[in-house]
Design brief:
The protein is about 50% helix and about 0% strand. It is an all-alpha fold. The longest helix is centred in the middle third of the chain and has 29 residues. It holds the Pfam family SecG.
Length: about 120
């Protein structure tokens, strides 16, 4: 499943970069008005109005792929095994303390986690 997530993430990044490039290439609405009065170059690679249709449709397709990849990543991100509670409520794992010159290891106190969020607010 990790390979699928990596592939979807790569597709999402490529579509995001493609959308950024296509959006930066497109002309604004005011550029068409200037071309109508003779200023600016109306003759372009795609024709007078062909670039707007091609670029806007390609941007729409890339946006749809981007949103689908985002939804797939959200689905796979939430598809983990159900646990019995929150990670914050789990007891802390005690790590063994290094023994100092042959002395018996001291007991490590485990912090007590309050049951509710209101009890975690610090007081003066």
């Amino acid at each position: 499943m990790n390979v699928i997530v990596n592939v979807i993430l790569a597709v999402q990044m490529l579509t995001a970069l493609g959308m950024i490039g296509l959006i930066l290439i497109q002309h604004g609405k005011g550029a068409d008005m200037g071309a109508a009065f003779g200023s600016g170059s109306s003759g372009s690679l795609f024709g007078a109005s062909g670039s707007a249709n091609f670029l806007s449709r390609t941007t729409a397709v890339l946006a749809a792929v981007f949103f689908a990849a985002t939804l797939a990543l959200a689905y796979f991100g939430n598809a983990r095994p159900a646990s019995s509670g929150s990670v914050l409520e789990a007891p802390a794992a005690a790590s063994p303390a290094p023994a100092a010159s042959g002395a018996a290891p001291a007991a490590i106190p485990v912090p007590v986690v309050p049951a509710s969020g209101a009890a975690q607010i610090p007081t003066k």
